[in-house]
Write a structure and sequence with these properties.
Elements lengths: L1 H14 L19 H6 L26 H5 L7 E6 L2 H11 L6 H9 L10 E5 L4 H7 L3 H13 L2 E2 L4 E3 L11 H8 L3 E3 L11 E9 L3 H12 L4 E9 L7 H4 L6
Parallel strand pairs: 1-7, 2-3, 2-6, 6-7
Antiparallel strand pairs: 4-5
């Protein structure tokens, strides 16, 4: 009965995300966010670094790179985040991830639509994978839910199992970039059935939140070794250094 009740509430949350995911206020006309929270969210977009999408204070041109990307070119081919990571946007991710508000996956996907490239030939959408023990305890992979919704909105092929997480890593909360890299280590691998089949393909890699980027970087490395020619990371929220743009700080959170 408890399991059935849990499934019922998840289905209800999918159909009716009727309250603002940031503050819990009932939204007008069924919109996903209340007016107040919508105005407070910091949406990300150009002008930004071509490599890591760190915001610039002024337009430096579409091909401009920040100092960090020039010094240490990232493995990926760009980051596309809907919003800046802060206390407000974090609530959305937490309510999806731990609160079972799976209808928020559709809301997030809708905010990522503007970042989808015009040319989608050879593009596949795939999520950062979870270890099977976390799937068992949570019942879903929040990144896979977002990816599936983005695929439905764009018509891009969604393949949920290109990457496998064969090593369970500890919670990343509170860990710095170096410790996150050490924790992730060799946690990811390519699913055997896709080996030799990804040459020249392009991947949109879905994550819910990008902080140091250690997890997504590990995934990108595996995909590139598997023959993928291009990988962009799509996420709901992305952390930047407080008080500065990432580009001005000269720090790469995603490399």
């Amino acid at each position: 009965m408890a399991k059935g009740s849990h499934i019922f509430h998840m289905m209800l949350n999918w159909v009716l995300p009727e309250r603002c995911p940031c503050c819990g206020t009932i939204t007008a006309a069924g919109g996903p966010f209340c007016v107040s929270c919508w105005q407070k969210l910091e949406f990300m977009g150009p002008p930004w670094c071509r490599g890591c999408a760190a915001p610039f204070d002024f337009d430096r041109g579409a091909d401009a790179y920040c100092a960090a990307c020039i010094a240490n070119p990232p493995r990926h081919d760009g980051i596309r985040a809907a919003v800046k990571y802060d206390d407000l946007s974090a609530r959305v991710a937490l309510r999806l991830k731990y609160g079972g508000k799976i209808g928020l996956a559709r809301v997030i996907a809708q905010q990522l639509l503007r970042h989808v490239p015009d040319e989608t030939d050879q593009v596949i959408i795939t999520p950062v994978p979870l270890h099977w023990t976390r799937i068992w305890s949570r019942s879903f992979n929040q990144s896979a839910l977002i990816g599936k919704q983005l695929a439905a909105l764009t018509g891009i092929t969604f393949v949920p199992d290109i990457l496998l997480r064969h090593k369970r890593t500890p919670s990343m909360r509170g860990l710095d970039h170096k410790r996150r890299r050490q924790a992730v280590g060799s946690a990811f691998t390519l699913h055997p059935k896709y080996k030799g089949k990804l040459k020249g393909r392009k991947i949109i890699l879905i994550d819910d939140v990008l902080t140091t980027g250690a997890t997504s970087d590990g995934c990108v490395a595996v995909l590139k070794r598997g023959g993928v020619s291009w990988v962009q990371i799509f996420c709901w929220a992305r952390a930047l250094r407080s008080g500065k743009t990432q580009a001005d700080a000269g720090v790469s959170f995603d490399a």
